[in-house]
Amino acid sequence: MVQGCFHGKRTLDAEQRPGEVARAVTRAKQGDRAAMRFLYLRYADNVYGYARSIVHNDHDAEDVVQQVFTRVLTAIETYELRSVPFSAWLLRITHNLAIDYVRRRRPSIDHAEASLPEPRQHLEATHLRGLLRDALAELPEVQREIVMLRHVAGYSPGEIAERLGRSEDSIHGLHHRGRRALQVALTHAGATPSTVAA
Fold this sequence. Notes:
By secondary structure, the chain is an all-alpha fold. The chain has 9 helices and no strands.
């Protein structure tokens, strides 16, 4: 579910062809990855645009998009088609995660004037973020999903095992291999994957 470039829109599109979305949601609830990909491709730009209007930063908005769709992976089972349109449900998730993102970053923003990064540092951080996104995109899908659930959504190995219908041992193994592959990719790219290795 990693996408390198978003075309932001400030609002989520109203459901056009609601039957097509409803069918995709039903299939996604049953674990159909193609249906989840359809929903991601249909709404990622909208989610990005709305998140961007809250966090006011392109890179932070990209982080929120990843968090939103990681949350959707696990929460879609609880979504009821008859309650609210899928786009409205997605909007609520986006809003909540974007606000949480801003709140988590506020302490560092309050002290920003004391430690503003140099332009070169900002460029390096942007470059590293791009390298990480590219390295994630190269992982096998299940490893990428586990890494995202573990490090972005903050789920425990046991919770991931339950959600993916796998044993906890297999989650540990796949997570270790995914993390190791990220370390190797980032090392070859000249980056130091300290957060990945943690």
